[in-house]
Request: fold
Amino acid sequence: MLRPKTILRAAVAAMALSAAVLVAPQAVAVDAPRVPISKDADAVTRAVARADRSAAAAAANACGTGYTLRKGIPLPLGTDPDLRLATLFAYENGGKGCAILDNNVGASRYMYLKVCKAGGTACDPDEGNFSEYAGPVYVSSFACAPVTAKMGRTSSSLSINYSSSYVFPCG
Reply:
């Protein structure tokens, strides 16, 4: 037979856990991170998401609800994915785009991230020294939206200087 103190302790523990989930749902999400991946995502994107589910899920959460991972790019380009300094994540949500530049170094670095509508208009930049990520930056119509990502010890000492119009789909 269970004693009243044991029952009370179990009830208090259950209530505390429930309260923690309601107040800090991200703590539960960290235990089982999941990010929806676009059916059009390439093999590199799928490999990046599998290798670091927590980073892909955290970046998606920073964008907001309803975003699907479209592209994951290890940077600098041509670097072994295990040795990357940063990862550029591009997410889509019903015609809107969101980008995050994830810092994989583990120390504060100068970071710059910008996404614009096609043609270089209506740009959303984020720049500064960050230990986790630059962004999120958004674009309301992401078809062929140009993206620029930079990272280095300073703005004049860059180890990453990436630019592309193909992070988001064209057409």
Remarks:
- The radius of gyration is 19 Å.
